[in-house]
Design a protein that fits this description.
heterodimer; A: about 110 residues; alpha/beta; Rossmann fold; 4 helices; about 30% strand; globular; B: about 220 residues; 2 domains; 5 strands
Chain lengths: ~110, ~220
């Protein structure tokens, strides 16, 4: 069972997505938060597999994503959906210690 | 109560699917179809004859405004509500001119959508708060009009009275209570008003009435 935490304002779009996820057998919505600090706290407490963000626009989501990854750390995947388009954006956090520029280059050149 | 037959028209697949799922969970609503563009919306309206169409504005092939125009031309009784992220004045008034009964932004919550659909049964004209504000702004700051089109057929005193209450934002039920008549009689008056003014719905009637000075604007400065 994959555990999903919602980060979204309560809107028709996000409520519709939640209704669809609720009908999917292997997914469980473990919570719903409407602001970043609360979402971070719930990520720490509940350790969801995925944080599903439904954002109004990119500026809102980018700030939230940066903040969440910085605070919550590894083992979290963030999926972002917007009303503006039909794209789905997937972010995952990877941490490593940088010894030198070669590590940065390696990450830039890596296929994923 | 008879089930309200709803057609969804939106090019955002996930939005469409989500709204369909929410509406299908309601006892008195049946989703009769989902269209991904304006052309499909027109075709599905012909096939399914819904009571209500929730229509996006920006869609490929044929946008929601054009689809609304075509559908209202063929099926004047189908109620069309624009459900969109677009909130510029030009599009709002274009939609009303095309015959839309309402204009609602997608940031509404599910319960508001249910309330809106129930309101349509009673003859309400749903508008999001910010959209209503833009329309009111037009009322209070009307553009200078050089429209020399003669007033269409003369309204009776009672029809003017009903029109004034429509402009004030009252529902058919509220008008009925205020004038001590039945809701059906209000509907008859509204039908006469729309026929005489060659308009399609109460929003058009309200905008027309204020712009033409048929009734005083309730928002005019004292």
């Amino acid at each position: 069972m994959k555990r999903v935490l919602f980060y979204s304002r309560h809107s028709l779009f996000s409520e519709g997505i939640k209704a669809l996820i609720d009908q999917t057998p292997d997914l469980e919505v473990v919570g719903w938060e409407t602001d970043v600090p609360a979402a971070i706290e719930r990520c720490k407490d509940l350790q969801p597999d995925t944080l599903l963000m439904v954002c109004k626009d990119a500026s809102e989501s980018l700030m939230a994503i940066g903040h969440i990854f910085w605070t919550v750390g590894d083992h979290l995947r963030i999926i972002e959906l917007t009303l503006q388009g039909s794209e789905i954006w997937v972010y995952s956090s990877e941490h490593m210690t940088v010894q030198g520029i070669q590590d940065v280059v390696k990450v830039i050149e890596s296929p994923e | 109560m008879e089930s309200l037959r709803v057609l969804l028209a939106d090019d955002h697949a996930l939005f469409r699917q989500g709204v369909k799922s929410l509406l299908e969970s309601r006892p008195n609503i049946t989703v009769v179809g989902c269209a991904a563009d304006g052309l499909q919306a027109v075709e599905m309206a012909r096939e399914t004859l819904p009571n209500v169409i929730l229509m996006d504005v920006e869609m490929p092939k044929c946008n929601g405004l054009e689809a609304t125009r075509q559908i209202k031309r063929e099926f004047p009784t189908i109620q069309i509500v624009m459900l969109t992220v677009v909130e510029d004045e030009e599009t709002i008034f274009e939609a009303i001119k095309a015959g839309a009964q309402g204009y609602v932004l997608k940031n509404l919550e599910a319960y508001q959508l249910y309330d809106m659909l129930e309101g349509l049964r009673r003859g309400d004209a749903p508008l999001s708060g910010s959209i209503a504000a833009k329309i009111l702004h037009e009322f209070t700051h009307p553009a200078a009009s050089d429209d020399k089109t003669p007033l269409r057929e003369e309204l009776s005193a009672r029809e003017r009275e009903v029109l004034e209450l429509i402009v004030a934002g009252l529902t058919n039920k509220e008008i009925a209570e205020k004038l001590f008549i039945t809701e059906n009689t209000v509907k008859t008056y509204l039908g006469n008003i729309l026929a005489k003014l060659h308009l399609q719905n109460r929003i058009q009637a309200a905008v027309y009435a204020v712009c033409q000075g048929l009734v005083p604007s309730p928002f005019a400065p004292e």
